[in-house]
Design goal:
Elements lengths: L9 H26 L7 E5 L5 H9 L4 E4 L2 H10 L6 E4 L8 H7 E7 L2 H13 L4 E7 L17 H9 L4 E8 L7 H18 L5 E3 L6 H6 L4 E4 L1 H4 L8
Parallel strand pairs: 1-2, 1-8, 2-3, 3-4, 4-5, 5-6, 6-7
Bound molecules: pyridoxal-5'-phosphate.
Pyridoxal-5'-phosphate (PLP) binds next to β8 and α9.
């Protein structure tokens, strides 16, 4: 395994991360048991934004296989520094079309596809790189009340899903959402699951539901989430930067 130990306290950091991972896996197992779902039905994506590549290496050493990032510049550097760890990189943040070339160079899954222009830009760059990129359509569950988060209006999601499915270098994976602040997460995730079911009726392979973070992963798993995106419960508090 590559990745030099980052310093004398790496042992402490590694133990802290491994303990956090054990706790998160226990939460996943309990939530799956409560929902009558096998725990293999849920994939954990460790969201490593604002944390160094050395933490990515410690997560990988502890058994994490999937990592997520929300800013291209930071993600690209970390993916380069983590080459050789055999990780699957997920892009979960808002995307400017001029970042698509870079993003498709490391990301296997893009969770934040929310407009047609982005679908075409991703397809163009994925083709150019001879890559196949799995895309999730991000749904705005806040009805426009949380514009910093991105996401398409629910009514526009089926057409975006069709557009992704029609692109040769893209593969429709399913849907993604962030629960709106101060809303009941159970209700938000239930509406996402309902929409996911409608998309799956037309696209049976699009079975991914990316929902649930550190604070609400139980509610997401209860509603059928297949991929949870967990940052702070694994790595600790981030500096308070708008994410
Ligand atoms: C930061 C982030 C997460 C992880 O959030 P935590 O609350 O730290 O678990 C998940 N999804 C997205 C889109 C994020 O930006």
């Amino acid at each position: 395994m590559s990745g030099a130990p980052p310093g004398p306290r790496a042992g402490d950091r590694g133990r802290r991360i491994a303990a956090n991972l054990t706790a998160v896996r226990a939460r996943i197992a309990a939530a799956c048991a409560a929902a009558g779902r096998p725990s293999q039905a849920v994939t954990l994506i460790a969201v490593t934004k604002h944390f160094p590549a050395s933490d990515v290496a410690l997560l990988a050493a502890a058994g994490v296989t999937d990592v997520g990032e929300n800013r291209d510049q930071e993600a690209a550097a970390k993916a380069r520094a983590s080459a050789g760890l055999d990780l699957t990189w997920h892009f979960v943040g808002q995307i400017q079309t001029n970042k698509c070339r870079s993003i498709v160079s490391y990301a296997t899954v893009v969770h934040s596809v929310d407009r047609l222009k982005l679908v075409h830009a991703l397809d163009r760059e994925a083709r150019r790189a001879d890559r196949k990129v799995r895309c999730l359509v991000q749904v705005d569950l806040a009805g426009g009340a949380d514009p910093g988060r991105g996401g398409a209006h629910a009514a526009d999601v089926p057409a975006l899903a069709d557009a992704v499915a029609g692109c040769g270098a893209l593969e429709l994976g399913g849907v993604m959402a962030v629960a709106p602040p101060r809303a009941d997460p159970a209700a938000a995730f239930a509406s996402l699951a309902e929409l996911a079911g409608r998309i799956r009726a037309d696209h049976p392979a699009a079975a991914m539901i990316s929902a649930g973070m550190s604070a609400d992963l139980e509610a997401a798993i209860a509603a059928g989430s297949t991929h949870i995106r967990v940052g702070s419960a694994l790595l600790g508090d981030r500096r308070p930067v708008v994410g």
